[in-house]
Amino acid sequence: MQAAKRARPQADAAPGGPRRPLVLIINDHDRNDDCDSVDPIIRSTLDEHVELVSLARATELAPATPVEAVLTLCHAKVDGALLDLLGGAVRVVSNYGVGVDHVDLDACTVRSIVVGHTPGVLTEATADMGWALLMAAARRIPEADKFARGSGYTRYQNMIYLGRAVAGTTIGIIGMGRIGTAVAKRATGFSMKILYHNRSRSEAGERDFGAEFCSLDDLLTRSDYVVLVCPSTPETRHIINAQALKKMKKSAILVNIARGPVVDTDALVAALQTGEIDSAALDVFDPEPLPRSHALLKMSNCIMAPHRGSATIEARAGMAQLCIENLLKGLAGEKLTASPEC
Ligand code: DGY
Fold it and tell me: Do 69 and 132 belong to one domain?
């Protein structure tokens, strides 16, 4: 791994040799971190350069020995209050993942903290996941799987678990960045008409995949599959709300591989209950995870995965490498390899 060969960042002198910079690791939603449970690749690579500490340990050590970097491996909030607890020496927040909606970028900027993330290395894995969810919902795979294992499956029946066509239908992609474009590429293999809605036009999407730029309303009314791939921002919060769901076809399937807050969860429950849309396939939730008693968990027309978009062995290795590289560059005061727009 290239990152492992980088020069050790500046460390304070300490008896017995230079001290490795302290890095707060956030690996647990409640920030009760056990550094031993961190991905062994990340741990073993970083051990040479830095000392990973939990929040409890970091707050014990600050301000005398402050944390110099934060490594976020999950979606726990990183805000001004947390950064202030750490003793004022943080120079970089490195996020293992492309979405940084859980990191308060303004709070980082005012504290001169740079933020890194891991785009690119997870694009194909996440688009594959979107496609897997779309196909699974279209062909009702989870319901059929359950039936195929049960005692009721004793003979062939031609009219059970009928799904929806995918090939030749219309897909509407909301968010035409890297992952949205990779979803569009897959749709061409299924001879689908591709509509997209995005902040700006996607030259590559239009040129390479014949994607048609359209308004949100136009996309919602014309699509058989609506796939959410946009970042979670104040502008995209509840972009799929009760009004949007009403505009969709009754036969439409909604796929969310973006972030939970992009969809109004209550409105989605109502739309699925009343048949306003056919079904939904969700990899992300609001709140995430949903309470175990939530209505969506009981609905057969909503299929789910526990935020697995980039969860392949290959993507995880790339994410580990990139977030380590960003972390070490940030500590060394160098320009990060990948940084979200602030
Ligand atoms: C991402 O890359 O944003 C994934 O959701 C994992 O955080």
Answer: no
Q: Which domain holds residue 41?
A: 2-121+312-331
Q: Is 95 helix (H, G, I), strand (E, B) or coil?
A: strand
Exactly one of 20, 31, 117, 307 is catalytic; name it. Answer: 307
Tell me whether residue 337 is in a domain: no
What single-letter amino acid sits at 25? I
| Residue 288 designated active-site | yes
Question: Do 171 and 81 share a structural domain?
Answer: no
Task: Say if 217 falls within a structural domain.
Answer: yes
The verdict on 168 and 298 lying in the same domain is yes
Q: Whose CA is nearest to atom 4 of ligand 1?
A: 97
237, 288, 308, 334: the catalytic one is 288
Distance from the alpha carbon of residue 128 to the mean position of ligand 1, in angstroms:
14
Best residue among 27, 78, 98 to mutate for probing ligand 1's pocket (most ligand atoms within 8 Å of CB) is 98
3-state helix, strand, coil in the chain (%, to 5): 35, 15, 50
| Residue at 339 is within a domain | no
Binding site membership of 309 for ligand 1 (Cβ less than 6 Å): yes
Residue 130 counted as domain residue: yes
Burial of 30 (0-12, 13-18, 19+ CB in 10 A): exposed
149 CA to centre of ligand 1 in angstroms: 33
For position 280, which CATH number holds? 3.40.50.720
| Number of domains present in the structure of the chain | 2
Return the pLDDT at 33.
67
- Decide whether any atom of ligand 1 lies within 6 Å of the 310 Cβ: yes
Indicate if ligand 1 lies below 6 Å from the C-beta of 119: no
My answer on whether 265 and 186 are in the same domain is yes
Q: What confidence score (pLDDT) does residue 2 get?
A: 40
Contacting residues for 85 by C-beta, under 8 A, at least 6 apart: 55, 58, 59, 62
DSSP H or E run through 293? none
pLDDT one-digit tens code per residue, 270-327: 999 999 999 999 999 999 999 999 999 999 999 999 999 999 999 999 999 999 999 9
What is the rounded CA–CA span in Å between residue 167 and residue 178?
A: 23
Q: Which of 91, 117, 140, 259 is catalytic?
A: 259
